[in-house]
Backbone:
């Protein structure tokens, strides 16, 4: 199983980025699994920022710190998970990881760096 995260970069405060997590090497569609985006800032523990559930309901949940600014979604045809990040703040600076809950256990992508700075 491969989770290839991309889309990170340097952005000014107030800007936007869209992270992608392309899933391959598995028989499972992204629609069949629960997915999270986590982040880890320097010197801090990894924290979950967004969640999307499996199935047609696609219920979502967000950390209070990103609620109203971040949106998690998935494209079943592309087998890809997204994190749209708007109104970015310096405190959003971190390495962002996608993660899926597979029957054999949780799998992680390699992380993509997001830096919010003027």
Residues:
């Amino acid at each position: 199983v491969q989770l290839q995260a991309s889309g990170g970069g340097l952005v000014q405060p107030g800007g936007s980025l869209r992270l992608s997590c392309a899933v391959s090497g598995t028989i499972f569609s992204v629609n069949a699994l629960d997915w999270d985006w986590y982040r880890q800032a320097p010197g801090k523990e990894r924290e979950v920022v967004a969640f999307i559930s499996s199935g047609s309901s696609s219920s979502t949940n967000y950390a209070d710190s990103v609620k109203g600014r971040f949106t998690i979604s998935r494209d079943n045809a592309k087998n890809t998970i997204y994190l749209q990040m708007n109104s970015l703040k310096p405190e959003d600076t971190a390495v962002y990881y996608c993660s899926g809950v597979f029957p054999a256990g949780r799998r992680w992508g390699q992380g993509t760096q997001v830096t919010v700075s003027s």
